[in-house]
Amino acid sequence: MKPAILVARAVFPEVLEKLSQHFDVTSNQEDILWTPAELIQQLQGKTGAFTTGSERIDAAVLASCPELKICANMAVGFNNFDLTAMTAAGVLATNTPDVLTETTADFGFALLLATARRMAESEHFLRAGLWNRWRYDMFAGAEVHGSTLGILGMGRIGQGIAKRGAHGFGMKVIYHNRSRLDAAREAACGASWVSKPELLKTCDHLMLVLPYSPQAHHTIGAAELAQMKPTATLVNIARGGIVDDAALAAALRQGVIAAAGLDVFEGEPKVHPDLLTVPNVVLTPHIASATTPTRLAMANLAADNLIGYLVHGKPLTALNPQVLS
To answer: What is the pTM of this model?
Structure first.
């Protein structure tokens, strides 16, 4: 008998077909967003789960699903997983690193450009029929080429953004990270380590690419925004909760910083209502990795983790490898 697994959200049909060769698959191609109680019900009798950031796997879920052995996230982030509880329950957690690095770095830089050059603001102006003449200062934004790019979080995606800034746009790149890169990587990225206060006060554009954790909650709040230049921009492609969205909306309205670009939000898919009323923010619905080839690669890696662990005993990208021993 094949092991039973749950695919918790809609996914590429070819990935379902791949999984069905090894498992008895229950899929959610209707893409229903289940409540925690409904998720527990769907997980009954399942050995594995193909999850996304929408499915919270915590102690309550694990206690109600004793047959569960692995949750394979179709995401590089995993703040929907209580890793401590999963490890204690002997449930493996996996994610999908690497396959989305370049696509996400591309998008981060695109969002930076759109924010600095006021693209969303000017498009709304044009669509509203308000453009009737040229003016020397109309939607004059911030310079990108030759400016200072600050990166908070310097993992794979941060390094990709640094290379784009340094080598493609002649930017001075500074970064802050818990662990400093070695000299060779710094040179390849064209980046220099600075303290967090130095990063905030020096950069013209601040890019957030750090993982979410309880310790990282509201890493950027009112106090941090006040340390930035009034001409600076902020871009968040990391995770909702890294930024205090209410404080950011107030800072944008008051001119504490010039503009922001956000692909992630606290409590998403809900967006703080104040962010919807300020013009100097570009908002996108968590699509930094959204190209078809990249999303397919993410789905395949999640599937390969399920197959690797439940069929061969060798997952590819374990987050809590101590479960294996």
So the answer is: 0.93
